[in-house]
Design a protein that fits this description.
Distance between the termini: 23 Å
Helix content: 25-40%
Low-confidence stretches: 1-49
Number of helices: 8
Length: 278
Amino acid sequence: MAQRWRPGARAGVGERVRRRVFGCEVGRFGRSGVERPASRLKRAKVVLVCEASSGMLHLCRNELKQVKVVLASQSPRRQELMGSLGLTFETIVSTFDEDLDKSNYPEAADYAADTAFHKVQDVFTRITEDPSREQGDRYLVIGADTVVDLGGQVMEKPSDKQHAFEMLKQLSGNSHRVHTGVAVCHFEIPRRDGSDGKAVPLAFTKCSETTAVTFSDLPDEVIHAYIESGEPMDKAGSYGIQGAGGSMVSGIQGCYFNVMGLPLNRLSKVLIDLLKTN
């Protein structure tokens, strides 16, 4: 189903990101779909249409029509990014505790991928055990986990303001890596014919994407003001590149959306490969 932003609607993340990343000062469109000059911005109508049949997912558009897509995340950013792909989806928040032992993972990217895997596994189990789900329906559950990696030190969400300050102080003037683990499970609800059949995934895959990010030198005053805005408190590494935190970033190498929490290009490739193979 297409997502439409009508006159007066708040612009979605796809529109905001296009303006920021690609230097589009307008990002609003009239009936013809042609960008209007910035001087006419206030009068321009917002009529953005995003469909799964466009972009990379055009290659698996028919297969996507045959599955119910579920996002195993409560992140508003991931929900908006999923919407920007034109996907119609249900959100089921994973109850996985995210308590994997980091010492078992030499690479932070593997830790993120395994966490994403467990989130999806949790939602897969809950769906297959839900008697209200239709027999024979096919599902595609997508999960992700993002961590900041500073020289091998894994930074997740801050526990409080002091913790956020300590993280940002460490990131100040340095380069770090952002890893997002992505997991996808494709399965079918088994027939309830009196047998003890259980759902078996048709495919279950995980991977990770890494982006290098460099911060400017941040005065303590800037760090404290940013923390008081509340933006860092629910984000890995205590910053959001898509918000005011983006002003602290002097450069990135890799996928911008990966830093936001969902690498759209990598996810699209995974979905195409998974759906076309199965």
